[in-house]
Amino acid sequence: MADLLFCSRYPFTAEAREYASTKGLELSSSLIEKAELRLKDALTTGKMKKTADLPSAEEESLILYAACRMIVSSAGNRYLINRYAVAEAKRSSDCLSSDLSARPSYVEQVAAEFGIKYEKSGQHFLVPLAAYLMFTPRSVDYKLTNREVAFGKVRVSAHERVRILEEAIKKRIEGSLPIRAEFPPEIKSAGAHMISLLPKFEAEIIRVGQENYPPCIKKLLEDLALNINVPHTGRVSLAIYLVNAGVSDERIVEFFRHAPDFSEKTTRYQVEHIRKHKYRMPSCSTMDSYGICIAECRCANPLNYRDSLHGRRLRQFEGEKKS
Amino acid sequence: MATREEKFLRKLFSEFYSKCRLTVRQPEKREFGFGGWEKKIEFRHIGVKGEQELRAKLVSDAPLYVSHSVAYFEFPDARPMVRKNWLSADLVFDLDAESHSCGKFTCEKCLEKVKAEARQLIDDFLLSDFGLSKGEISVNFSGSRGYHVHVVSDAVAKLDREARREIADYVTGTGLQFDRLFWNDGKKFFGPKPTQGGFGGKFARAFTSRLEEEEFALSVSRKLRDPQEKAKLKSAIQTGNWDNIGIVSREKKLQEKFDTMKLTLAGRIDANVTADTSKLIRMPNSLHGGSGFLAASVPDLEKFDPMRDAPAFGEEKLKIKATEAIPALRIKEFDFGPLASGDVRELAMHSAVYLLCKKAAVLA
């Protein structure tokens, strides 16, 4: 017998999935509306309301979860998906925090869901190194160098243990979306509605006269604008390119403003550093080995892209001027 | 146009590859890169169906350098990189002799130093901190002036770039906030216990053991001349109380001690190699075109002597002419040199190949 309370609190688990599929839960217009409200909360506040732990609300919670997933999938927008994943993970993390004392077995069960085996050590917990590295935020507080690491385990507090699970949940939800399927009209219209609620900064960002930027650079800019976490190598390459393309520091910092972990001070410092020390643009093959090359432009270096694109035309133009 | 020397070496390498031992794990999932006289990687995105095809390619192309990806891909020869479909990767550490210190010829002292660092990496980090087992770690000589440490383990296989960067940062102590290890509650000065993990524990253990040295103890505090005071401090540190004897300017002193103890491998591994999940790295047991040495697997670091164990070729004679001054060298217990530019010598094949690869001699 599935534990319905557990499933409603942690709807991303295998147990919840199985419950939902065997029960054949049904969508109704009122539930789709509720799901929309949830998503609106997620979009505007980054959080979603907890559902009451009433038996009547438990199945509803599962349906809402499924409905939200369908709506964001139908909308097909990365920003919306990421925003939703953060809020859904936060909701589960609040449940985990209260379950630490009320229903400790639930916490164990969620950890097991991600294959994370904790060991208790006094007031603390020991987490396997790989899980720690995969599921901790990249911040000073979680820097491995400053942690107690021994025999493949990292020591964390009870609170940090929940934070790690929250990150794992977020990653799972992000990774499992969008669902590719044909959705009922009501879901589709809810999806369209969500799109209309998205903040409007994206279009402006991508426009900035970038028709001559190479595909890899365009992609990095798009990812940033869509709040996708671009890896460090990608950020550095992008900043070097923009510096070389004659974009001002101010402007470059603006591009990075939408990174999920944006810090104005750090970004400004790094951009200035790149400019001051004349960092060289990584070659196409280096970009490729970073995993950020997305096309075969045959220009050897992203900085050459503009010339190889327009080279002939520009040279012709120069020639005409001389003659 | 290939020079006579390049042609000669390629022929020699091709023969070598026709009968050598190949030790690549899962070659069908790796990307290979081949290098020549000018570049260590001239061609990459090479895929093979298995060991047999790899050998055939090595014999026919006779590359002077052979690298393979640390990663396993579904489609190793696809381009661009994202189409390869990354599956997992070994975790690799690249330790090199400090490049500028000794010039272009292999220096045994530098190699000894790198060997000690490789040992520190394995013992203090991989085995004890990361909890890996000896069977998951393999070492090979780089073929030139360093060692590569490969970790093949489910515990690390799926780690992404950022996670690997954290590992590299840990090993090099990057971002370490030493003052975070200590705190003051107004009465007592607390710090790490020797039993604890991470750099705190490393420091506490090293510090208490170094207190046995008279000079070290006195540099911490004059009071430690008294054996009773020393015993008192040592037992207090066991409980995390770092100053029950009143050390003058203790924060500064402790930081200084930490810095001199070399508990990290700061600057000694190439962090980019470790972080790069699709890095091409020298294929173990392949030939290094810059030395003619084997990037030999090293089953026992203690016993390995690169100048004795890495040369791949025999003792048949070859006449060469030095094109620059060459210091006295010893390869496989054969001494030769110093040579002046223009000197013609008949040398054992391994030594002659070494000089040709170093571009310090031509065929005579």
Helicity range of the residues of chain B? 25-40%
Ends distance of chain A: 87 Å
CATH class of the largest domain in chain A, named Mainly Alpha
On the 0 to 100 scale, the average pLDDT of chain A is 84
First CA to last CA of chain B: what distance?
19 Å
Reading off the top of the CATH hierarchy, the class of the largest domain in chain B is best stated as Alpha Beta
Looking across the biggest beta sheet of chain A, what order are the strands in?
Answer: 1-2-4-3
Number of domains of chain A: 2
| Rounded Rg of chain B | 25 Å
Please tell me the overall pLDDT of chain B.
93
Uncertain residue ranges of chain A: 201-208, 312-323
Describe this structure in words.
The complex is a heterodimer of chains A (323) and B (364). Chain A is mainly α and 323 residues long. Chain A has helices spanning 4-9, 14-23, 29-45, 55-75, 78-102, 104-113, 129-135, 158-176, 185-197, 201-207, 215-225, 232-244, 249-256, 264-276, 284-290, 305-322; strands spanning 119-121, 124-128, 149-150, 153-156. In chain A, a hairpin with a 2-residue loop joins strand 1 (119-121) and strand 2 (124-128). In chain A, helix 5 (78-102) packs antiparallel against helix 8 (158-176). Chain A is globular and about 65 Å long. The model of chain A is unreliable at 201-208 and 312-323 (pLDDT under 50). Chain B has 364 residues and is of the alpha+beta class. In chain B, the strands form 6 sheets. Chain B has a 4-stranded antiparallel β-sheet, with no helix packed on it. Chain B has a 3-stranded antiparallel β-sheet with strand order 6-8-7. The longest helix of chain B has 20 residues, at 108-127. The A-B interface holds A 128-130, 133-134, 138, 140, 143-155, 231-233, 285, 288-291, 293-296 and B 44, 79-82, 86, 128-132, 155-156, 158-163, 165-167, 169-170, 173-177, 180, 196-201, 276-280.
